[in-house]
User: Fold this.
Amino acid sequence: MYSFKNDYSEGAHPNILQALLLHNSTQEEGYGLDRHSQNAIVLLQNLVDDQGADIHLLSGGTQTNLIAISAFLRPHEACITAKSGHIATHETGAIEATGHKLLAVDSSDGKLTPELIEPVLTEHHFEHMVKPRLVYISNPTELGTVYSKTELQALYDFCQEKDLLLYTDGARLGAALVSKDSGMTLKEMYALTDAFFVGGTKIGALLGEAVIIKNAQLQIDFRYLIKQRGGLLAKGRVLGIQFEELFTKNLYFDLARHANEKAQFMAAELAKAGCDFWIDSPTNQIFPVMDNRVIEELSGRFQFYVWAQKDENHSAIRLVTSWATSQEAVEQFIQAYKEVCKDVLIHT
Ligand SMILES: Cc1ncc(COP(=O)(O)O)c(C=O)c1O
Assistant:
């Protein structure tokens, strides 16, 4: 049964596996000091156009968020996030377990704005409460929505004015940057955050996330903190080779574009067939709303998550495409949707 559950159901893009095999027998330094990791770092520094960018390769998203956020905060400081933010919903309290409170705010589209953050600052105004210090966003958000350059600029300006750090979870950053709602480059992203990460796991790598720290204060001793939290891999080369491959010839962005195109094709065809959407998402995650009987029937043919209940009879499902999703798979889903709608809805 084909799965639209996520974008990490497949292994890695073949170029990455070939590169791993090609360099398999050479001896390298450990702990990220190998030539491949160093080269990958230079490639990313060139893309953000700053040789002073502090870049580290880590293994997974939760690990990156918890190492970065706990490194950036002092003991009494807290992190502001949307209620739907990944750190608030799907990371098992990893940030709280490092001693930092999450201040979660409602957001209808998963994004944060100065207007949503302001009340948190007003409320937390003295030393009997935690001090809001870092704003966590993800781009794209958990709802597949994307920050425009104007929105990110406004958020960053606000953070600067209020002495807040802006940190972006980029587990699917490629999908955001190549989407029609963004048009931003890595360099622009870098200019508008204190730190962010570029996710590889969900865009063609076997595993791996590259954290990029612009703010010089936040760069201090970061490798110590990675090591202390168990994130410094002896075989760091495995990450280095993959990021080298992803960023030598734009593979990262090509794969993100592929994933987005497949999801957007599905969204357009489902809309033509009369389907509504929970939210307008321009990336590789889409949220069609369907009759529960249609969902029930489709779930016998494809794997996907039922995301939210719209009303008694309708729910939103989440369909995620990946760098490896074929046109055939998306067409089969669309065809199945049309057939099922006819059967279920007309005969009842
Ligand atoms: C936005 C976002 N951040 C972080 C993560 C966590 O990544 P991992 O599962 O590699 O820990 C995910 C995983 O789905 C995610 O979607």
About this structure: The two ends are 27 Å apart (CA to CA). The chain has a mean pLDDT of 97.
